[in-house]
């Protein structure tokens, strides 16, 4: 929540846009490019402007077009671009589908999509069909049909899609991934992850302040409350799984020698959002009469073809400190993020945890060793620098990104599958094989390198 509030201060106050951070010039480190990537943004709200800010620090891109139906967000984005010394881009947003006119531009090579969730798949599909290298924010899809749309369009057009999951680049995550690849924990058997984040101040506001005030949402709200809260009202599912499952999928090579096989999900009763409305708006507020469908805590268990289990937790309606709840366990040891602790058989004292700090320092990832000083100022503790860098570098070469269309589909499929399982009293749901069998021979992405 603190990172959200700090970002809001930079983007909203007086329409001033984002201020550039000192000593940050990604292009000076990454090198200039004569053939600059021509980049467009669909959605320049808070998340879109975060990506835009990181892109504007590079010397190997040009922002050639932006699109948003909110004219205030367009003003903020244009000021950011002008302050960075870039030429004014073409502007779109006269209607919900004006983005399709943007996609017709020859001066657009790649597109970043940071819009409300229901637009992610349709925009990504249209972008790939237009031949653009496409980056889409999380989650990438809401239904199994949409998951297949992403895969089928990628295969039919040959256009690449990258799901912009920034947690895969968190410093401790990459260090633990390095440990997994170096077999520190031995053969992996079990994982835990999720999204445990008190978002009540995001789901509701007063229609004027983005976060932390009021109990309005939908047409009466602003920012994320305008669209995100309705998912909680109408769906009982893990509606936001990729921050947790993305890093775990990389550790156990999902879609590349391994795959998700089945899922079971259960939900608690729904109480937290109603209580928040009553506590902050009173029992007589109209929203206090609504029945939110989403359970306060949703627990899903996934089985993989290699015999691992993964527990995924969604918990956003209750008062609690932030945690993605990571646990990585092998036959020779494990890491748990809560408690910041590691145990490695033969290296740790018997039956005693080690503080994780020294282990994480020892296995610090090459990317963080190379770019850590720059990355720390790029948003979300530095993760956003790396996800933007991976997108731009992959797009410049027009090669498959680290997190591709098959990943976008498999990770996002947790939402509809969890919904089906909960509706059917925890009945197991089979994961579609979005790779159509090619996962058996696909080689794992080389995560342990210092480029992207």
Automatic annotation (TrEMBL):
Cofactor: NAD(+)
This protein's name: Gfo/Idh/MocA family oxidoreductase
Organism: Aestuariibaculum lutulentum
Residue ranges occupied by any Gfo/Idh/MocA-like oxidoreductase N-terminal domain in the UniProt entry: 38-162
Keywords from the named record: Glycosidase, Hydrolase, NAD
Domain named Glycosyl hydrolase 109 C-terminal: residues: 174-355
Keyword Flavoprotein: no
Domain of life, per lineage: Bacteria
Family: Belongs to the Gfo/Idh/MocA family. Glycosyl hydrolase 109 subfamily.
């Amino acid at each position: 929540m603190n990172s959200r509030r700090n970002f809001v201060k930079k983007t909203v106050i007086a329409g001033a846009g984002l201020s550039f951070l000192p000593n940050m010039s990604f292009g000076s480190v990454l090198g200039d490019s004569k053939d600059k990537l021509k980049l467009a943004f669909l959605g320049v709200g808070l998340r879109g402007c975060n990506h835009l800010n990181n892109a504007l620090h590079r010397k190997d891109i040009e922002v050639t077009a932006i699109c948003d139906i909110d004219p205030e967000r367009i003003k903020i984005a244009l000021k950011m671009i002008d302050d960075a010394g870039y030429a004014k881009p073409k502007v779109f947003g006269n209607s919900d589908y004006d983005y399709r006119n943007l996609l017709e531009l020859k001066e657009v090579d790649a597109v970043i999509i940071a819009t409300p969730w229901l637009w992610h798949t349709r925009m990504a599909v249209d972008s790939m069909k237009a031949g653009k290298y496409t980056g889409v924010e999380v989650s990438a899809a809401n239904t199994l049909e949409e998951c297949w749309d992403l895969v089928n369009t990628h295969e039919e057009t040959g256009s690449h899609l990258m799901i912009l999951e920034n947690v895969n680049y968190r410093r401790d995550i990459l260090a633990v991934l390095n440990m997994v690849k170096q077999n520190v924990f031995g053969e992996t058997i079990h994982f835990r992850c999720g999204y445990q984040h008190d978002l009540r101040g995001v789901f509701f506001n007063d229609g004027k302040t983005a976060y932390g005030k009021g109990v309005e949402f939908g047409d009466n709200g602003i920012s994320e409350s305008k669209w995100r809260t309705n998912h909680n009202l109408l769906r009982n599912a893990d509606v936001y799984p990729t921050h947790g499952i993305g890093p775990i999928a990389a550790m156990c090579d999902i879609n590349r020698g391994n795959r998700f096989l089945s899922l079971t999900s259960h939900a608690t009763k729904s109480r937290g959002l109603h209580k928040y409305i009553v506590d902050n708006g009173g029992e007589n507020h109209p929203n206090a009469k609504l029945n939110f469908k989403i359970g306060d805590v949703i627990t899903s268990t996934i089985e993989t073809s290699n015999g691992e289990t993964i527990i995924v937790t969604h918990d956003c309606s209750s008062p609690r400190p932030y945690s993605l709840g990571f646990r990585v366990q092998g036959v020779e040891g494990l890491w748990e993020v809560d408690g910041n602790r590691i145990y490695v058989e033969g290296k740790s004292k018997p039956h005693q945890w080690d503080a994780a700090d020294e282990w994480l320092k020892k296995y610090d990832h090459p990317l963080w060793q190379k770019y850590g000083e720059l990355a720390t100022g790029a948003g979300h503790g530095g993760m956003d620098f790396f996800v933007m860098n991976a997108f731009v570098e992959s797009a410049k070469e027009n090669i498959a990104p680290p997190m591709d269309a098959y990943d976008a589909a498999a990770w996002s499929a947790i939402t509809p599958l969890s919904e089906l399982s909960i509706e059917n009293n925890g009945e197991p749901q089979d994961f579609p094989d979005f790779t159509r069998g090619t996962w058996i021979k696909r080689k794992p992405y080389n995560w342990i390198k210092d480029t992207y």
